[in-house]
């Protein structure tokens, strides 16, 4: 059995995806996603009243704010960068009426992948807005600052730790053969709950940054899947683990 982390809004869908793929897995949510309404309003207003070259959207939970802001603007539409496939899909659905909006995805779905995009290294890319969650994706803003760009960040949602983790089914630690961590925060919350018992398991995560954090925690076997979608994780597991 595999143990995988997801925030509460994604937990059931991910569990169903693993089940349909024939993989015995239990999902755990250690946090919920809570909107920050004041930041959502401020971000939408900023997007609608300012000339911007690029908007970086780091999660599906940030999409609604971007859609709201762009539907109100009279300025030329900026390039919208989605961190991954799910975010891009939701953006395309929300902005379907604005056919002139260009949505791009980095080759590698990480902060480093975004910073490497040629669109963010062109001379006319000076005004960038990042729509993200509290405490997330600081590396993007720092990297763009170093390039001399003007960067405005809005934290439109936050991860709120649950009083108790929520699991998709009953399970025992002795049944687990591997752990999938899709965020650094949830990985650390899991380790905090179970302690050193998790250090001996093989882990799969979705960025080198998270992998380094886990290695520093004493986990010896950590692999990286460059995409965080259920489909990508399932494909990696079937190819590299015994499923």
Automatic annotation (TrEMBL):
Pathway: Porphyrin-containing compound metabolism; protoporphyrin-IX biosynthesis; coproporphyrinogen-III from 5-aminolevulinate: step 3/4
Keyword Lyase part of the UniProt annotation: yes
Boundaries of every Tetrapyrrole biosynthesis uroporphyrinogen III synthase domain copy: 16-235
Keyword Lyase assigned: yes
Catalytic activity: hydroxymethylbilane = uroporphyrinogen III + H2O
InterPro entries noted in UniProt: 4pyrrol_syn_uPrphyn_synt_sf, 4pyrrol_synth_uPrphyn_synth, UROS/Hem4
Entry's Gene Ontology BP terms: protoporphyrinogen IX biosynthetic process; uroporphyrinogen III biosynthetic process
Key words, A-Z: Lyase, Porphyrin biosynthesis
Enzyme class: lyase
Database matches in Pfam families: HEM4
EC number, as in UniProt: 4.2.1.75
Gene Ontology terms for molecular function: uroporphyrinogen-III synthase activity
Domain of life: Bacteria
Protein role: Catalyzes cyclization of the linear tetrapyrrole, hydroxymethylbilane, to the macrocyclic uroporphyrinogen III.
Family membership noted in the UniProt record: Belongs to the uroporphyrinogen-III synthase family.
Name listed for the protein in its UniProt record: Uroporphyrinogen-III synthase
């Amino acid at each position: 059995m595999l143990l995988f982390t997801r925030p509460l809004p994604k937990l059931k869908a991910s569990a169903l995806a693993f089940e349909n793929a024939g993989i015995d897995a239990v999902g755990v949510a250690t946090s919920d996603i809570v909107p920050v309404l004041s930041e959502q309003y401020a971000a939408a207003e900023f997007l609608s009243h300012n000339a911007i070259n690029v908007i970086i959207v780091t999660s599906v939970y940030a999409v609604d704010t971007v859609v709201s802001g762009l539907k109100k603007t009279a300025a030329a539409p900026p390039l919208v960068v989605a961190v991954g496939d799910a975010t891009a899909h939701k953006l395309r659905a929300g902005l379907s009426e604005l056919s002139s909006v260009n949505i791009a995805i980095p080759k590698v779905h990480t902060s480093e992948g975004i910073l490497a995009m040629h669109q963010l290294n062109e001379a006319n890319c000076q005004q960038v807005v990042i729509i993200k969650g509290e405490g997330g994706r600081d590396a993007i803003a720092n990297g763009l600052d170093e390039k001399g760009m003007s960067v405005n960040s809005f934290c439109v949602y936050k991860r709120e730790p649950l009083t108790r983790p929520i699991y998709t089914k009953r399970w025992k630690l002795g049944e687990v053969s591997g752990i999938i961590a899709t965020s650094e925060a949830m990985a650390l919350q899991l380790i905090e709950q179970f302690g050193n018992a998790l250090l001996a398991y093989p882990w799969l995560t979705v960025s080198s940054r998270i992998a380094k954090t886990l290695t520093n925690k004493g986990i010896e076997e950590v692999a990286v899947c460059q995409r965080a979608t259920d489909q990508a994780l399932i494909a990696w597991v079937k190819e590299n683990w015994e499923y």
